Amino acid sequence: MFATPPTTLHLISDMKFGATFTFLLSLISIALAVSFIVPGAVWTDTSGAKILAHGGHVMQVDNTFYWLGYGSAAGVVPNIYESTDLMNWEHVGFATDQVTGMYRPKFIYSGGKWYIWGQVNREIVTLVAPGSTLASTEYTLTGSPALLPPDSRSFSDMGVFVDDGGDAYFLSSADSNNLQINNIDGGSPITIGTRVADLEAAVEAPGMLKSDGVYFLVVSQKTGWAANPDKVYWATSIDGPWQGGTDIAPESTNTYGSQNSAELMIVGSSTTTYIFLGDIWDSTGSDASNYEWLPISVSTSSNTLTLQDYAMWTVNPSSGVIAFANFANTTFNAADGIVRGSAVIKKRAVHNIDSSSNVTFTNVIGKGDKQWVAFKYTVSNVTAGEAHVSVNGDAPINLSDLNSRAGYRSTIPVALALKEGANTLTFGTTATGGDFEAHLEGIEVFDDY
């Protein structure tokens, strides 16, 4: 059994949807503060630096959330951030200077101590915090690197799940193409114990949640850095039998371009909420990769999980209630802009925006800081070109550099620095291989960032 730390602890999370959705009718604008979770967008910490926390998870202790992950440029070292609202993250720092090449790091609490487990050279490596807080930059190595019992398998990806009664489990993508679940032996130091389940499937990126007595295992197929349809398995006992293999999102979307990292549970005063924490990898898994956080709809009657695809949303950490941005402060139809080139106006939209065409919106009122601007458009072939935006005549910026979902979803919010007063935004395209056109419905401008 794993002792509960001297605080309220939530490792993973669950949500039941239906009438629990509420409209986000108002948001308090805080200077330089993030007001939305925006899947796919570049996410920065409170200092303005890009968040580097891939392959990790989020732990809640009392009213504070701790995000653990890794970045590549720093040598793949565990990296810690903290937040009280899941949107604005302060960089605590790198957890240690004693290890590099640690992938998929996870927190765990046992025997009065905080540990970080991660994969180094396909073995389990353990770090321990010096004191009672997990938000430390002085974790030290403890014990020896280990393989998976009982037959010394190596592994690639890993996850951690703590059950209702406190029993903890290690989820691993074994190199024998088996998804393995082991007990975690408590105490200090912690060790990997008995194997309780062995799924003969070539899957990785495991995460788990539990709702109304049903265990749900979320996994990805093995396709390198390319996204694929993440699958969901279920069981009424953690040792199986495991059934399912259903899609967590429409198969054609490849999990909206992402791969599972972990699931977060928020036990709120109004509802219990589950959140999918995913990575949107670039072609090499570099620090240019972004994040895909989306609410999960849980059905224990059909034994399925479904991602709720929202371009901009938030969650109240106290109540657990999800809210989403259903209106902007200002909306511009594409036909209201200045249309140049061979593009064609049809009703309120502009079609056939090729490399020789663009649409310019004038009198876009800015607050003198970053604001979200949502571009509502589709493209003819996402692999054949880029849509871009120019702010006040500056050099165009590809929307995909600001939001990894660009070209794949029809609403793409991006953070733009707008001067105070009137601004000019120009939407255009660049073909990179063959014919490429965009169809623009318009833009939505939010006062908040």
Automatic annotation (TrEMBL):
One Pfam family recorded for the sequence: Glyco_hydro_43
Molecular functions (GO terms): hydrolase activity, hydrolyzing O-glycosyl compounds
Keywords: Glycosidase, Hydrolase
One Gene Ontology biological process: carbohydrate metabolic process
Stored InterPro entries: Glyco_hydro_43, Glyco_hydro_beta-prop_sf
Family affiliation: Belongs to the glycosyl hydrolase 43 family.
PANTHER family assigned: GLYCOSYL HYDROLASE 43 FAMILY MEMBER, GLYCOSYL HYDROLASE FAMILY PROTEIN 43
Protein name: Arabinanase/levansucrase/invertase
Organism expressing this protein natively: Mycena maculata
